Amino acid sequence: MSSQHLLKIVPSAQRATLEEYARHTREISVKLLNAIGDSLGLEESYMEKMLDLTNGHQIVVGNRYPPIQSSEPAIGLPPHSDTPLLTLLLQHGAVDGLEVFHNGHYVPVRIMPDTLLAHAGDLLEIVSNGKYKSVLHRVMLKGESTRMSIVTALGSSIHTMISPAQKLVEIAENVAAYRSMSYLEFVEITKRNHAPPRLSGIEPSPETTRGQRDGGRALLRRWFGDHPSPAAAGGKTEQKLCFSGAVGAAFSGGTSTFPHREKSSRWVNPSPAPPPGAGRG
Ligand SMILES: O=C(O)CCC(=O)C(=O)O
Ligand SMILES: [Fe+2]
Questions:
Q1: What burial class does residue 269 get, using C-beta atoms within 10 Å of its C-beta: 0-12 exposed, 13-18 middle, 19+ buried?
Q2: Does ligand 1 come within 6 angstroms of the Cβ of 139?
């Protein structure tokens, strides 16, 4: 991994630290994904091998949620699920706010010091043929202090075909719950629909659906998009894509801060070359 993948917003003094953080969290994510593969009865290191995690795309995002003025809770980040395979979330400091959707309502996730929280993402739900559900979550702000979190998410390499593991399809009497597509195609479809397709497992209220759609849009723009986007909380939540890259698959490092990411902040120089019809050059 080289510092060319670090976006310019990262001050040079912090680059080494961020690179080290990205390296360690990548290793932890790969181990967890392999363990998840084991738990599903897949062959050893299935996730690492089949999803080409050595070339997997990793992003690191810093979120800063400023204090809210009103006594009413405010949305810091609208409901969404994370697109890649696995998210590791570090909630920094002492300001809670994360909530996950469980059994029909949002449940607060209290901060546990020095703890990484793992979220299953959309791609993991696909690969596991729905056994691991992608987690719908949001951030609600209730207090007068600044909340900070650091998110790192690992996906496959962007041209890897994502499909339910064959063994799990056989166990499910040859029913694949999701069709096969490349990670890139998944992102493209999601962007075109302006929302991550909710994969399965929950029956959200219309309000949740709306929030999820908006949240998904904000997230996708932040992570993959090329449009300026008003972030959550009236545009006040500050989110910085600090790092995005992978060994062998680079992300353009020209820009910078969500929500004012410029057009040049797109997938570039993917390796290997995109398959025909992949939609981007
Ligand atoms: O700040 C948090 O706890 C959650 C952040 C999050 O869900 C995200 O950045 O995708
Ligand atoms: Fe998230």
A1: exposed
A2: yes
